Amino acid sequence: MSAEPLFRARGLWKIYGSGEVEVQALRDVDLDVARGEFVVLLGPSGSGKSTLLNILGGLDVPSRGRLQFAGTDLSAADEAALTTFRREHVGFVFQFYNLIPSLTVRENVALVTDIAAHPMPVDEAVDRVGLTPRRDHFPAQLSGGEQQRVAIARAIVKRPDVLLCDEPTGALDYQTGKLVLETLADINQSFGTTAIVITHNAAIAAMADRVIHLGDGRIQRIDTNARKLAPSELAW
User: Fold this and answer.
1) Are 198 and 93 in contact (CB under 8 A)?
2) Which strands, in side-by-side order, build the sheet including 64-69?
3) Residue 2: its pLDDT value, please?
4) Would you say residue 1 has pLDDT above 50?
5) How many domains does the chain have?
6) Could you give the percent of the chain with pLDDT greater than 90?
7) What is the pTM of this model?
8) CA gap 86, 92 in Å, rounded
9) What is the CATH number of the domain that holds 197?
10) Residue 220 lies in a domain
11) DSSP-based three-state secondary structure for 157
12) Which long-range contacts (C-beta less than 8 Å, at least 24 apart) are formed by 107-110?
């Protein structure tokens, strides 16, 4: 772990509702994430994984506590500052691809370049995910795994510092999921992009630098992998 982490969270709480209907989605979470690290958030439904990911990505704010990104206090940021943070620093990949059906692969990826300060060439992003032969196809002409790789290309084309992935293989079969994970691992290693991935699948955790186990809104334990496995070595 570097002396100056990319993310530093201290005492994060997220509370929804109040009184008898109060839900404590996060409870006193402390966490550092280093630049270039590959982190897996592991835990059952309702453990706080998505809430934590959304706060790290600037999609939500903590009820209390402090979150810093590269030394900047995000917990005190207003919506305009959070929008700038998301636009300039974060790429999102979700379980469902959210592609525009009437646009081709290339056009779906190109949309993001309009809001990026220094985007990579669209064709380079498409090639990084192995879809150059399919770049003029529409989403309906692609498999689920190919659509997810389009979503990854769309996330990386703006050269984000952080790639946040919420169940990126959740809707995919075994072999297709491995291809998507290989893409994420390659981006993490080739560009030094910090990757934080939510999963229910404990096997996927073997490819991470660290595994953050969450339960009941708290970090239960943190495991460090002495030897990361390649996606092709995973046994789901």
Assistant:
1) no
2) 23-33, 7-16, 64-69, 72-73
3) 45
4) no
5) 1
6) 73
7) 0.91
8) 9
9) 3.40.50.300
10) yes
11) coil
12) 108/139, 108/150, 108/154, 109/150, 109/153, 109/154, 109/157, 110/157
With both helix axes pointing from N to C terminus, report the angle between 144-156 and 174-191 in degrees, rounded to the nearest 10.
20
Whole-number Å distance between alpha carbons of 144 and 7? 32
* Digit-coded pLDDT (tens) for 127-179: 999 999 999 999 999 999 999 999 999 999 999 999 999 999 888 888 888 88
What pLDDT is stored for residue 119 in this prediction? Answer: 92
Measuring CA to CA, which residue among 72, 71, 74, 89 is closest to residue 4? 71
Q: Where are the alpha helices (H) located in 78-173, listed in sequence order?
A: 79-89, 105-110, 122-128, 144-156
DSSP class per residue in 34-62: -TT-EEEEE--TTSSHHHHHHHHTTSS--
Which residue segment(s) compose the domain that 217 sits in? Answer: 35-61+87-233
pLDDT, one tens digit per residue, over 78-122 is: 999 999 999 999 999 988 889 999 999 999 999 999 888 889 999
